[in-house]
Amino acid sequence: MQPSESTSHKRLAMGIVEYLDKAVADGLVAGDGAESLEIAKQCIADAFGLDVEDAAQVKELSLKPLSLDKVFDVYTATQAKLGGAKEAPEPAGPSDEDRRRADAFKAEGNNLVIEKEYAGAIDAYTRAIALVGDNAVFYGNRAAAYSQTGEHQKAVDDAKKALEIDPAYSKGYSRLGLAYFGLGSYKEAADAYEKGLELDPANPSMLKSLEHARAKIAESPEGAAAARDVPSAGSSGGAGGLGGGLGGLDLGSLMNNPALMGMAQNMMANGGLERLMSNPAVSQMMNNFRSTGQMPNMSDMLSNPDLMNMAKQFMGGSGGPPPPPSSSSS
């Protein structure tokens, strides 16, 4: 027969009283401490209706031959044998309710963006992120809103966080490109758009944005310098290692040379340019340039007798137009 709840409580209280007697008897507590335990025993007995002078009651409720400390030792040994108390499992992430509320905040933010209420949209997306911090779209949307308010560095940080969560999130690269563009970091913007287009090659918005970023790069001093660059001396490029894009010739100086400009005008006026382009050697060089992008090799040009003969005729003292091309011309 199971003891009643009241009896179980009394047995536990009696076990505590007996343990306090044992603690004093074993010398665990002495002096003022022992006196305090005597008072504690009386208080416990009164609270649970115990009469420690009643032998029949004591016999009925006593834990002897066990004692409360021995019971506790058995309990701890059992727990150790079983591997200890089971720790509470870590939360598995946001609850379904958290995700539902976060989606509602995202929808609110989207509507505010449509109304151009960007500050309110940022607040709504921030609330969504507070509930669910593993959603790339929330960070991507907030990045776009930050760009609209001119807070481009915050937009960069959010876009990077979105891509950290989901590297396949193509819009994250679009947001990152827009943020870098706002900061004037056009090279980084172009890199971001290019990576986004690897995931979404036909995205018209990113294609257009990449064009704008590249145009800005070209307009920059560094871009303009790069556009003017030609292969350096000793390179294996089309200049044949003579230095510069055309064998070390200074194109700027050539264009400012009155004699050469006059010769060019004379060629165009007398049909010389057409005859020059019909020469097989020139035609071959132009085909090579179109297919490889490499400039003609000046060494080859200077060693070609046909070209040298044509050059002498164009620059001859008579100033007249050169003779028609030889029969070998096509």
The overall average pLDDT, rounded, is 76
What is the β-strand count?
0
The named CATH superfamily of the largest domain: Tetratricopeptide repeat domain
Shape: rod-shaped
Structural class: mainly alpha
List keywords for this structure.
3 domains, single chain, disordered C terminus, 330 residues, 68% helix, TPR-like_helical_dom_sf, mainly alpha, SGTA_dimer, Serine Threonine Protein Phosphatase 5, Tetratricopeptide repeat, 18 helices, Single alpha-helices involved in coiled-coils or other helix-helix interfaces
Task: Outline the structure in words.
The structure is a single chain. The chain is mainly α. It contains 18 helices and no strands. The N and C termini lie far apart (120 Å).
Q: What's this entry about, in short?
A:
With 330 residues, the protein is an all-alpha fold. It has 18 helices and no strands.
Helix and strand arrangement:
Blueprint: H1 5-25, H2 32-48, H3 55-61, H4 68-81, H5 96-114, H6 118-131, H7 136-148, H8 152-165, H9 170-183, H10 186-199, H11 204-219, H12 221-228, H13 251-255, H14 258-269, H15 272-277, H16 280-292, H17 298-303, H18 305-314
Helix pairs in contact: 1-2, 5-6, 6-7, 7-8, 7-9, 8-9, 9-10, 9-11, 10-11, 11-12
